[in-house]
Amino acid sequence: MECEPTYADVLAARELLAARLPVTPMWSYPALDHATGATVFVKHENVQPIGAFKVRGGLTLLAGMTPAQRAEGLVTYSTGNHAQSLAYACAAYGAPCTVVMPSSASAEKVRAVRALGASAVLHGADMAEAQERAEKLAADGGCRLVSPGDTPALLAGVGTAYVEIFEARRGLDAVVVPVGSGTGAAAAGIVAAELAPGCRVIAVQSSAAPAAHDSWRAGGCVERPDRTAAEGLATGRGFVLPQRLLRTHLAEFRLVSDEQIFAAQRLLASHAHTLAEGAGAAGLAAVLADPEGFAGQRVAVVCTGGNASAAEIAALGGGAGPVR
Ligand SMILES: *Cc1c(COP(=O)(O)O)cnc(C)c1O
């Protein structure tokens, strides 16, 4: 087990990222406040160059490697946005990159990974099978295997989003973070403990893929099926490093249904000028699911990503439910 990232690591990551990524906007929308009964601040990670917050982690990881380490290449596994993050960072630093994606991965995300110059291998029905193939490719090719959840530099990097949030708004009552592997929420906890100890960090996952949630409740990593349409929340298992940090830092871990996520996705489109992918709308879904709990509060919801597939975008405009 690699060591836990600290707040100092997050600040160091911010220095590294300053030249490559501008601070993302955080807006509130009166119509959205009206619909939720709270003051909601939407942190727009959907406007990152890869359309998701994970680019912060990938760039931080690559910045911390030596040229010789980069030259050996990196291999990882992902349903899409971690793949794009690593591909983007490897392109920026001239490192070879291979990503194994489950064969169910969205065509748009696969295309994006390849356009970034990485090699995308479609393999397996789920993340576990993709991971197995990635491990073999790394061993055969002498490349570094990057765990999407248990890599400290990724947590330190994504933590920079929370420095931005807490610096932009004092006195937040809560920050709601969509969770897959848990890197974002764990990093939120590290940063909140320093900058906003009164702010509750609330994690949210889909009830149709509750591996991180159930791991947190169980106090150890468990496996669960991934049946959600929001693939960014679907990792199939808990990850040791983020789970350990979540046990220290998390106030609550909630579940929302795919239908609730879809309704939040629609509301972001109609009330906040924002195209979110399902995972990116889960934070707002948690607020909408508990109007009494959040009434009158100042709540940051992280719109973690905007990489909705063509089918997902079409469904947003139609009368049907989430696309599986
Ligand atoms: C990866 C991802 C998440 C989950 O983040 P973790 O750090 O894996 O918990 C949420 N939303 C989007 C859009 C993602 O890509």
UniProtKB/TrEMBL annotation:
The keyword Zinc does not apply. This is Pyridoxal-phosphate dependent enzyme. InterPro entries: Ser/Thr_Dehydratase, TrpB-like_PALP, TrpB-like_PALP_sf. Signal peptide: none annotated. Pfam families: PALP (PF00291). SUPFAM superfamilies: Tryptophan synthase beta subunit-like PLP-dependent enzymes. The lineage of its organism: Bacteria, Bacillati, Actinomycetota, Actinomycetes, Kitasatosporales. Keywords: Lyase, Pyridoxal phosphate. Residues 23-305 form the Tryptophan synthase beta chain-like PALP domain. Its cofactor is pyridoxal 5'-phosphate.
